[in-house]
Amino acid sequence: MTRELLTGNAAAAWGARLAEVDYVPVYPITPQTEVIETLAQWTSSGELKARLVTMDSEHSMLTAAGAAAATGARVFTASSSQGLVYGFEMLYTIAGWRVPLVLLNVSRALSAPITLEPDHNDVLAARDCGFLQIHAESCQEVLDSVLMAYRLAEQRDVQLPIIVNLDGFYLSFTREPVEVPCVDAVREFLPARKPLHGFSASHALAQGVAVLGGTGYSFFKYQMQRAAEAALAVHDAVTGEFCHHFGRCYGAVEGFRLDDADWVIVMSNSFSTVGKEEVIRLRAEGEKVGLLRLRLIRPFPSQEIEWLLGGRRGVAVIDQNISVGKGGILFGEVASALRARTAPPLLSFIGGLGGRRFRGREFDLVMSALHAAENTGGSSEPTLLYSEAEYVQVMDMLRVAHRLPDTHQA
């Protein structure tokens, strides 16, 4: 094992290298490009004995990834933002083929307007396609999650592809100390892939066949649902083994200062570190508050979330995404996990869109709303975390600079 300063992108590349992947179809897009540049350098030098091929689009990249995985190869690929949604059709197809592979998504907000910084609308748009999803908070967790994703995806009871998500810029280009395990230790945890089925010249096999009538199609989807449900227990076993081998332990969710917390803030990804710092500050000011970080988004660990949140005085979900016309995506997911008999007042907040930094005063607003909701109950109406004065100031500046019509200030 070595300890290195790595960006989140480099940590992801190390995960693919240590997994000894066979095939890497790629297409560049900011802020993911460093991942494939690193892998290209290693394949060129012979440090990674894989075939790396630059495709002509994200759609063809994902098509190639799924086809290669169907032959039994261990496949890694990566995308971001507009690239992910450009290849969206193939996400459903690959998952329907039941081929295990790992797709790294470096989250970046979707245009328009265009931005290079992160929120989670890109990856959460894919939550229904059949890919499982693991969301990382740190560079170390990125590397570890890639390794665990292969072990999880390739299990007999699962056989589904997995997205590992990290935030663009805030994590992709942030250097943190990362423990890089030796390849022999990884081989003990993650042996070579032994496909349950795969195309070959001597073995006839149908994949993605047409099913006439709804009954056959339904049963294919039922199988995928059962596999995703099984992945919850398999995930616990895989993370337990990973902890035994490498000493780093992960759950489907992570609790921070939850033991005696009356109030809980729910977040995900790298901005959870900001939330933890705010929890420490609010604790020092006398607030008994904790944080629950969502790590496994698909399958969604509803029972564990209900157990951890039930009976609290109030829960606030901070979404770094927005379903326009509805509100926060993860708020609805958390709400569905809480049964009426145990459900605390539940509030929805939206912040950090397009990489906007969270402010301490926004967490003060969250706490004020939680205290008020204890008597009035929760609300599904989202609160947008910004001040009206700041909003007017910024929109006035943009209107002048870019000649925006007045409708942008409505």
Brief account:
Helices cover 42% and strands 18% of the residues.
Radius of gyration: 22 Å
CATH hierarchy: architecture of the largest domain: 3-Layer(aba) Sandwich
Q: What is the number of helical segments per DSSP (H or I, 4+ residues)? A: 14
Characterize the overall form.
globular
Poorly predicted parts: none
Largest sheet: 6 strands, mixed
CATH topology value of the largest domain: Rossmann fold
Total E-strand runs: 15
Secondary-structure content class: alpha/beta
Walk me through the topology.
Layout: E1 2-6, H1 8-18, E2 23-26, H2 33-45, E3 51-54, H3 58-70, E4 76-79, H4 81-86, H5 88-97, E5 102-107, H6 121-124, E6 132-135, H7 139-153, E7 162-167, E8 176-180, H8 183-189, H9 214-246, E9 253-256, E10 263-268, H10 272-284, E11 289-294, E12 296-298, H11 302-309, E13 314-319, H12 329-337, E14 346-350, H13 360-376, E15 379-384, H14 388-402
Parallel strand pairs: 2-3, 4-5, 5-7, 6-7, 10-11, 10-13, 13-14, 14-15
Antiparallel strand pairs: 1-8, 6-12, 9-11
Helix pairs in contact: 1-2, 1-7, 3-5, 7-9, 11-12
Can you tell me about this structure?
The protein has 410 residues and is α/β, with parallel strands linked by helices. It folds into 2 domains: 2-246, Thiamin diphosphate (ThDP)-binding fold, Pyr/PP domains (Rossmann fold, 3-Layer(aba) Sandwich), CATH 3.40.50; 256-391, Rossmann fold (3-Layer(aba) Sandwich), CATH 3.40.50.920. 42% of the residues lie in helices and 18% in strands. A 6-stranded mixed sheet has the order 9-11-10-13-14-15, with helices on both faces. Strand 14 (346-350), helix 13 and strand 15 form a beta-alpha-beta unit. The longest helix is centred in the middle third of the chain and has 33 residues, at 214-246. The relative contact order is 0.11. The model has no long low-confidence stretch (mean pLDDT 93).
